[in-house]
Structure formats: C-alpha cells, structure tokens
Design the sequence.
C-alpha cells in the first residue's frame, strides 16, 4: 500500500516564467509566475480529508491505492486544470499536476485535468463527486469514502482520463 504523504504532495514542483508566455489560464497583466502543485492546500492549508486523484487505475475498484502519481484536493475544485484565484494575494497562477511521492514516477508532472484513472476519498465527513466538465457539470461519479484511505475506485469509462472538476458529494 502506498502511504500518502500530504507534505510530499504539497511540494511546489516547479516555477516557470510568465503564464502569459505559455498561454495558460486567465489573461492578466498581474500574473507574473506559474506554479505547478499537486495539492490545493499548499497555500490555504486544509484540516480535513482529501480526494486523491490517481494517474493509474487499480486492478479492481476498492483495492489498495495504485502505483504511480497522484494529486490531492480538498473541498470543491471548479477546474482540475488550474485555479484562477491568485495564491494568497500573490501574482502567482496555480496549475494542478500529479506528483510521485518518491520523486519521479509514472504521471509525475502531468496535468490532473483529463488524466486521472482512479480516485479515493479520504474525508471522514463527506463524499466527493467527480465531474466530466469544469464547473461541476456533465456526467459524474460518486466516490465513496473509505476511512483510512486504503481503497481506490476506478473512474467509470466516461470519466477515465476525462475528469475536469470535483465537489463534495
């Protein structure tokens, strides 16, 4: 079983030049940098469980977490690709990517949006729903919480590699 380490997941993976240079995210003269992160709690801190989006599928839903990279989200994520809210009053644009807990691994650095194959809900208070479209729209799948984060669920055939947002269920 892979042990999830939110400290590892919270690591800012890379900083690159201007977001406008790469055409990523909302156009704004105020945005000066892009940071690639694997956890939306990096800037705001979170106190409750997470939804882990996994780069790989599991052999059978409900089994242990798959090998490979993952990303961790807390709360409602309008767009798995990026957030258009500057990080804590900074001029930094945030893009969500997968990270491998031990460094480099399958999917490490890949965008989370439209690249997840399975998920597991580590929240002890609520369930999550994963959506096909950004903004909590389109086809969705409820990801049941398994206390202790020991089991992952494959995304259904519509959502596998077509995930765009997630919301408390």
Sequence:
């Amino acid at each position: 079983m892979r042990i999830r380490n939110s400290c590892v997941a919270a690591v800012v993976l890379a900083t690159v030049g201007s977001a406008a240079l790469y055409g990523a995210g909302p156009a704004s003269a105020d945005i000066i940098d892009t940071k690639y992160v694997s956890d939306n709690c990096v800037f705001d801190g979170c106190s409750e469980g997470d939804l882990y989006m996994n780069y790989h599928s599991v052999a059978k839903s409900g089994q242990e977490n798959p090998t490979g990279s993952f990303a961790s989200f807390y709360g409602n994520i309008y767009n798995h690709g990026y957030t258009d809210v500057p990080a804590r009053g900074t001029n930094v644009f945030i893009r969500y990517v997968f990270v491998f807990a031990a460094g480099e691994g399958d999917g490490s650095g890949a965008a989370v949006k439209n690249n997840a194959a399975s998920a597991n809900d580590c929240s002890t208070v609520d369930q999550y729903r994963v959506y096909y479209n950004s903004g909590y729209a389109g086809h969705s799948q409820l990801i049941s919480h398994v206390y202790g984060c020991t089991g992952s669920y494959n995304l259904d055939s519509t959502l596998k590699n077509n995930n765009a947002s997630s919301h408390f269920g």
